[in-house]
Write a structure and sequence with these properties.
The protein has 228 residues and is mainly α. 79% of the residues lie in helices and 0% in strands.
């Protein structure tokens, strides 16, 4: 990995912006379907984890929609900070809900019924979400967009949550381990809080690529060697 990253210009920049718009559009469409299916299946099975998973999908829609909106603006970089704040709030909301639902599940020892539909939708998410996250992250890093990278991390968080819920559903179905997905949910919530703090501060993964390049353009300082 070299220490210098040149910002994209001209046609390449437009291609990357268009690519990010397509990725977030696909993410929104998938998560709308996922939310409806998961919440319905969770209600039928009395599964707090599945219902929480479905509500998490609505948070992912909010995050992706914020990025999609940003990249419809004539000057997307102008809206970078505000969009990062929206993504950070989405992380915090996700952490709050998952924590609350996990604690309530542990305290109440609620019986969760077997949910084949829940297992299928979470398994699909585990397979699909990493590809969407990777595609958006690569485009965002090349473009120097902290918001696109932060949103890709939100998608990756949803992948982890999908895996946690899937494991919990499978263990509950096979062994009656009702507490498994609640414990995993608490771990995911802690990770989501950390990512929310980073997004709020503007420290999302490729911020050094995007924002420091903007600093170079604005202030004439040479930060190109500081790419994390």
């Amino acid at each position: 990995m070299t220490g210098t990253t040149a910002p994209p210009t001209g046609d390449r920049r437009h291609v990357l912006q268009r690519r990010i718009r397509w990725i977030v559009t696909a993410t929104i469409a998938y998560n709308v379907v996922e939310a409806v299916v998961a919440i319905t299946a969770g209600t039928v099975a009395s599964s707090a984890a599945l219902i929480g998973f479905g509500l998490d999908s609505t948070i992912e829609v909010l995050s992706a929609a914020a990025v999609a909106w940003q990249f419809t603006r004539r000057d997307p970089e102008r809206w970078e900070k505000g969009t990062l704040r929206v993504i950070a709030i989405a992380f915090f909301a996700l952490a709050a809900y998952v924590t609350a639902s996990s604690v309530l599940a542990l305290a109440g020892r609620g019986e969760v019924e077997h949910s084949p539909v829940g297992i299928v939708i979470t398994a699909l998410s585990v397979m699909i979400m990493p590809f969407l996250s990777l595609a958006e992250r690569r485009a965002g890093q090349e473009l120097g967009s902290a918001t696109a990278v932060a949103d890709s991390k939100q998608t990756l968080i949803c992948t982890y949550l999908s895996a946690a819920v899937l494991i919990g559903l499978v263990l509950n179905s096979l062994f009656g381990w009702w507490w498994a997905d609640a414990i995993a949910g608490l771990v995911i919530a802690a990770f989501a809080v950390r990512e929310g703090i980073e997004a709020w501060r503007g420290d999302a993964c490729a911020t050094s690529v995007g924002m420091l390049l903007e600093d170079d353009d604005d202030d004439g300082h040479d930060h190109h060697g500081h790419v994390g």
